[in-house]
Design a protein that fits this description.
Two copies of one chain form a homodimer.
Chain A: H1 2-26, H2 31-42, H3 48-59, H4 64-85, E1 95-96, E2 99-100, H5 102-105, H6 108-127, H7 134-148, H8 153-163, H9 170-195, H10 200-227, H11 230-233, H12 239-242, H13 248-274, H14 281-291
Helix pairs in contact in A: 1-2, 1-4, 2-6, 3-4, 3-9, 3-14, 4-6, 4-9, 7-9, 8-9, 9-10, 10-13, 10-14, 13-14
Chain lengths: 294, 294
């Protein structure tokens, strides 16, 4: 199963990467801007969101091709958010995935514009998806704009900035991560199911699955910042502690954080069993996300 | 006619302002982020783009209500672009419309996020427009993302930054303005016509009209930076010269710039006559944009 999952992830990463790069390459974009956009796209990344979307579509009888443009749009939005989050005025990060961040490699103005451009292009890509009906496009754009906007990811980012060096409790921490990371993960699996023709009940189940995936994703992130391998992560560990950031290990201890993570793993699996899709790649992905070392 | 036009502009500004503010107000957005978004929305602005869109729809038998959500989305995109353009890493402006720019009033991180949020919300607003069909929504989102993205407005902004303190010719100057300002003005009138059910020929005429409007808009902007009234403009004049920026007056002299502007006025009017819509508000708006003092 482990090898099979690795092949699955690698294959889909390859397809998603090719699709994104091809779309950006063929557009008429000023050179520096295009290079800056491609730089962050090519910087790697696990493509967790697109892979979750594809796996969700497949779990309900759909195919990768049914959702590929939306998966690409989703990854463009994720990439834009990383570029902007790394800016000096935000998290001020110099290194991501072992490489200089966009504004270090280019400059701040270019990084801001590359982010703006990727965000805008995400919506264009969906409108031009040949495999989707107009109704599907409108639904997907609506959900994506909500999940990534001022009541979703952008809200999470500002609350995260405001929470820095402040004492917050577990409920506030969960809210921030739910907005900052969770909403796009939920979008991935819910819209994957929707585009594959899943029923309302199935969509609801997979949405709840996405909620637990979001939490365990974040808990593992926090754990890796304490116990992770700097080389594998491609970024400095211990930065949360240096920033006096509220994290699961800080609030619950490492053992407490692992316990909460395992609870979410169990709940995610249980939801898949109830929806009779526990034999799908969505199940393997739970453990992959929970146990990843980067 | 002049009074009638002023009333027309005032009424539409009011309606557009109310619509934007109502949409942002009713959403669940973290306080600082919402305040920052509303700050820039409420900072004034002539609402030229929404008004052109409404006038174009009306010229072809449509109504303001047919296009209002799209006009709102367009103004959200325009507002986001101003917030990001003013950032220290970009044009580094402290004052806009006589008030502190967003990052001065709040902070850089908040300004970046408010821009991101407004850009994202623009697409959401279109998806939720009750008066539009799914096909219309998809067409409008497609055109808006192209006009404002990496082959449109964002391209114009990076080319503009790259042209600073560099000698460029009239053709390059026109290309920058076409991308930075022109594409959204064309979007306004073309999509206004489209949503009102105009024919392909009519859409083409109004697109060309939009092209000339874009040019004369920019020429007047440049002239005001030389000859304008600082109080009325709400910003420092002479900044283009200080920045050694290429402008129409610099490349052609004031008289030369005025001559080119008048040529574009004449061509815009001629296009309206040919499309038999020269008695629409689009005609009065040509002179308004050409002669404005702010």
């Amino acid at each position: 199963m482990a090898v099979q999952l690795n092949d699955y992830i690698k294959e889909n990463q390859l397809i998603v990467n090719q699709a994104i790069i091809e779309i950006v390459e063929r557009m008429n974009i000023p050179t520096t801007l295009k290079n800056s956009m491609l730089y962050s796209i090519k910087a790697g990344g696990k493509r967790i969101r697109p892979i979750l979307m594809i796996a969700s579509a497949e779990a309900f009888g759909g195919t990768r091709d049914d959702v590929l443009p939306v998966a690409v749009a989703l990854e463009m939005i994720h990439t834009y958010s990383l570029i902007h989050d790394d800016l000096p005025a935000m998290d001020d990060d110099q290194l991501r995935r072992g490489q200089p961040t966009n504004h270090i490699q280019f400059d701040e103005a270019t990084a801001i514009l590359a982010g703006d451009a990727l965000l805008t292009m995400a919506f264009q890509v969906i409108t031009e998806a040949k495999q989707l009906s107009a109704e599907q496009k409108v639904t997907v754009i609506n959900r994506l704009s909500i999940a990534s906007g001022s009541s979703g990811m952008v809200a999470g980012q500002i609350l995260d900035l405001e929470a820095e060096e402040k004492q917050i409790d577990i409920a506030q921490l969960e809210q921030i991560h739910q907005l900052k990371t969770g909403e796009l993960l939920i979008f991935a699996v819910e819209m994957g199911a929707y585009l594959a023709g899943a029923s309302q009940t199935e969509r609801l189940a997979v949405k709840q699955y996405g909620h637990h995936i979001g939490l365990l994703f974040q808990i593992q992130d926090d754990i890796l910042d304490v116990e992770g391998d700097q080389i594998k992560l491609g970024k400095q560990v211990g930065s949360d502690q240096d920033n006096e950031k509220s994290t699961y290990p800080k609030l619950l201890g490492i053992d407490g954080a692992i316990k909460v993570k395992e609870k979410n793993v169990a709940m995610a699996i249980k939801l898949l069993e109830e929806a009779t899709i526990a034999n799908s790649m969505l199940a393997s992905l739970v453990n992959y996300i929970s146990d990843r070392d980067a």
